[in-house]
Every structure is written in C-alpha cells, then in structure tokens.
C-alpha cells in the first residue's frame, strides 16, 4: 500500500507506480482492436499492417493507458487512506526512484480540511425588517404616472424644468459652424441633463418665438475631440414649449396598468402586493448576507489552495465573458489579474465548506415540498404562474437552482434560531436603493 506523506497543512504526496507489462498488455490489446477497423490510404479497412497501426496510434494509446493506470493507482491509494481529495492532483514522473519494469510517478494533492463549527449561539446577526404603507403605494403610483407623462403645447409658457421644448440651434467656433453643432426641430426635456448645463440654462424662461445667443464652454473631456475644451457661440430659436401633464389616477389609468375592471382600489391592492413581495425578497437577501458574514467566521481552518484557484479562474472567465457581452474589444486577450478575485474566492470557498458541514450535520437539505413551494412563490411574479411552475419542474437543472436557494434558506433559518439576533429596521428607500 503506498504511503501518503503529509507535506504541510492540507498538502499531501504519494508515490505511485504501474507495471510496464500491464501497460504494454493493454496497449497491445487496444491496438489489435483498432486494427480491425483502421483505415489508411492504399489499404482496405481492417487490412492495414499491424506495424503501421502501431507506429501511427501506439504513442497516443500508450499515453492514454499510462494516464488511466496512474489515475486508478491514485484513486486506490487515497481510497485506502480514506482521504477526500480537493481539486486535481499534480502528477509528475519520478525517474530517480524508478524500479526496473515499473513506471514511477509522484502525485501531490490537497485534501479537504476538517471543519469544526463553533457554537452557533455565539454568532451575532441582524435580521432586517421593512414594511409597505400607503405612502410607499402613493409614491409608486407617482412613478407610474411620471412614466406615462404626456406633453401639451402652451403658447405663452416660459420654459421650465420638466417642460419639453422644441428648438433650432446653430453652434459656431471662431465663427465657423462645426459638425454636430446645428439642428432643426430638436426636442428635449429641460432639467434631465440631456444637454450641457449652459445650454439648458440659456433655454430656461424662453417662450415660443424667442431667440437667444450665448457662449458655451465644452468640457476638456467632452466626447468629441474636435470641440473638447473649446468655447462655442450658440444661437437658439424656441419653436414650441410643452408642459408635462401627469395622468389622473382614475379607472382609465387603472386599466392601462392591467386592472381590467378599472378599479383604483384594486390597483392599489395589486401594487401593495407587488411591493410586499419585493420588500420580502430584499429583506431576506439582507438577512442572508448578515448570516453568511457571521458564518464565515464560525470555524477556523486552512482552505485548499486548489479550490481557491479554481474559483478564481471561473471568476476571471466570467469577467471576460461579461466584457465580451458588453462589446469590449480584445476581451479575449485583455489581461485580467487573478489576484483581484483571490480574496473573494477564498471567502466563497471557506463559506461553501462551512455551509456544507452545517447542512450535513443538521440535515438541512432541501426537501421536495420546499422546492415546490419556492417555485410556486417565484411563479407569483409572472402573469402565467402555471407556465412558470411547469418550466422549473420540467428541467432537472432548473430544479437544482431552486434547491440551492432553498438550501440556503434552510441554513439561514437554522442560524437565526441559534444565534444572537438583532432586529434592524430598514427604511423603504434604503431597501430599494433610492435613499
């Protein structure tokens, strides 16, 4: 039985060997099998001379057989030692210790650490709380109204923020018009930052038919290099001023938002229900984050470097794919330093090992009825819930994604039942990121 040597921490090493005779026997068997169907120019299938088959395919087959034999020897060695291997082993030839008739190798690898969790009652976590009231519903209605803003022309209205103005303009630098500096019947809404501040300031207070000439200094970092850092003179003529008109919250408005009966109170109830689902989701996410932050400190152990490296490589690949999806040129060859992800990868691996240990120790695996319940909960966010349920139930991979969510929910619930929990009131604006 090979002796597994402890190098340091989680790193182990074992010497392996395979008999050359076993390798050659299997190579010979594969070559004979291959020769029965081998095709080469000038020969009928199965009639290629054995010497040519051996010369053509022998080296590749021998390497495959050696790799297979080494893999089997490695699996047997770690199996007898009852070791859980983390990541892929590094296998290297061991020429200085070769025994005649054997091929010797050294396999260096890492093992999973023993994870001993601290008493969960010592952990401190915060449980977020938030509520949805009439004020939040009113503000959501205001947002929905602004999304359906219409504009009505006002003959004598002085242009103000949130008005839409239509104008002609001509911009010149040193008396010469420049590309992109002129337009006719150009419309924009004042106060939304679409135009440079000096341009909007000049238009404010003007009425239809008014004209104005003013200087405008382009920023040094302006998008067009031809005008960046230069001062232009603009002449504008206001053609039309339109005031923004918000729709009234009435039966017609309710129908536009999908309330078939045009019942405003039912519309408000729908909005409340949607907001409560979103608030619940975000509150759970905040609480889960607090639990995971606490859990990552719940045990001290060495983290397998190979697992950290694997996670880092995946994150680099994901970052590269993200750049490609954004249309960034040279995304395939752009240097992305792995070191930028190492700290987070180590945290992810550590947390994954802790969660795995907790799940096994406390039997927190996702149960079928929990998965079904979570899918039904997801489905309420869509117009056709039954189709969403069928979508998840019909595919094993999709169900696995939901199982992972349920498993995390089980871990969070277990920790909350054991740890020191502080209730944290979170405002609606802070929770939604609008504070």
Automatic annotation (TrEMBL):
One of its GO terms (cellular component) is cytoplasm. It holds the Pfam family Trigger_N. It comes from the Bacteria. One of its GO terms (biological process) is 'de novo' cotranslational protein folding. Its main location: cytoplasm. Its EC number is 5.2.1.8. Keywords: Cell cycle, Cell division, Chaperone, Cytoplasm, Isomerase, Rotamase. InterPro entries: PPIase_dom_sf (IPR046357), PPIase_FKBP_dom (IPR001179), Trig_fac (IPR005215), Trigger_fac_C (IPR008880), Trigger_fac_C_sf (IPR037041), Trigger_fac_ribosome-bd_bac (IPR008881), Trigger_fac_ribosome-bd_sf (IPR036611), Trigger_fact/SurA_dom_sf (IPR027304). The keyword Isomerase applies. It is found in: Cytoplasm. GO terms for molecular function: peptidyl-prolyl cis-trans isomerase activity; protein folding chaperone; ribosome binding. Gene3D superfamilies: 3.10.50.40, Trigger factor ribosome-binding domain, Trigger factor, C-terminal domain. It is an enzyme of class 5 (isomerase). The keyword Nucleotide-binding does not apply. Residues 162-247 form the PPIase FKBP-type domain. It catalyses: [protein]-peptidylproline (omega=180) = [protein]-peptidylproline (omega=0). Involved in protein export. Acts as a chaperone by maintaining the newly synthesized protein in an open conformation. Functions as a peptidyl-prolyl cis-trans isomerase. Consists of 3 domains; the N-terminus binds the ribosome, the middle domain has PPIase activity, while the C-terminus has intrinsic chaperone activity on its own. NCBIfam families: tig. Belongs to the FKBP-type PPIase family. Tig subfamily. This is Trigger factor.
